[in-house]
Amino acid sequence: MGKIQREGFGTVNDNDQSLKSKTGGAFGLNSGVFFTKIIYNATAGADGAAADAVDINVKIGDREYNRRIYDVTGDLFGASGDKIPAPVPGAEWEDEYTIAYNTKIKQQKAVVIHAVKAVGVTQASLDAALATPAANFAAWAQIVCGLLPQTYTTIPIDTFLQYQWQIADGQDRTFLELAKNMKGGRFFCPSFRGDFKECFEGNLKYVTPEGVEHPFTRDANFMGSEKAYLQEEGQENGPRQAVGSNENFTADAGKAASKSKW
Q1: Is 191 within 8 Å of 34 (Cβ atoms)?
Q2: What number of CA atoms fall less than 13 Å from residue 126's CA on the CB side?
Q3: Cα(180)–Cα(163) distance, rounded to whole angstroms?
Q4: Beta carbons of 22 and 63 less than 8 angstroms apart
Q5: Which residues contact 194 (CB under 8 A, 6 or more apart)?
Q6: How far apart (Å, rounded) are the C-alpha atoms in residues 223 and 94?
Q7: Domain segments of the chain: what residues?
Q8: Which of the four pLDDT bands, split at 50, 70 and 90, describes residue 20?
Q9: pLDDT per residue over 231-255, tens digit each?
Q10: Alpha carbon of 177 to those of 44, 159, 223, 251: distances in Å?
Q11: Structure pTM?
């Protein structure tokens, strides 16, 4: 027998805040948010099966955005998009596989390091902790996550959300997500104070009226890709159109833009 009591038919307060839809993130810059989790996960496979990964979760409003960074195993894809089977000893494609492996594992490690550095882990501490390289991904992940300050979930960060590349099976639209790799640019950093406004003229950047630029930028290739706009089944979807800064945002006259310090 269940312990939770069903809602009865008395009155209800229409001002009850719990009635509102959950608020979440927006495309692009989301400021002053928090990690809820950056942890090594040894059971990241289907239904809790053994598989090594690092779980990175960010809470924006009432919603969490999750990214699971796996160890690199099994078949891979080369630069041309061709599938490269995991090699057996002496396989003639072993070098091709190693090139693809090195490319992908470098991106995986970079995302985890990008996350921990946003809450204060320094490159110097990473260099010292990994002066002797770890034996495998699991050991590496535990070393890196072990450098996090105990209070990292209370340290505000800024994050950048993008749209999924394509509509997933069983869905009718794409959703916002954390990036899977560093190819598009930074998507975590310490939280910067300032009234950052979107400035989009083909490239995307965020600038305060005083001319300070946020570390998050996206180039024209990114802004013309599926990652930059919502796709919905049955709808005509397309890249965002560039907007002149005089129509969208104008910094104070005579002030040159300056990069934020991070």
Answers
A1: no
A2: 17
A3: 11
A4: yes
A5: 208, 210, 212, 214
A6: 36
A7: 24-259
A8: low
A9: 998 886 677 654 433 333 333 433 4
A10: 19, 10, 15, 30
A11: 0.83
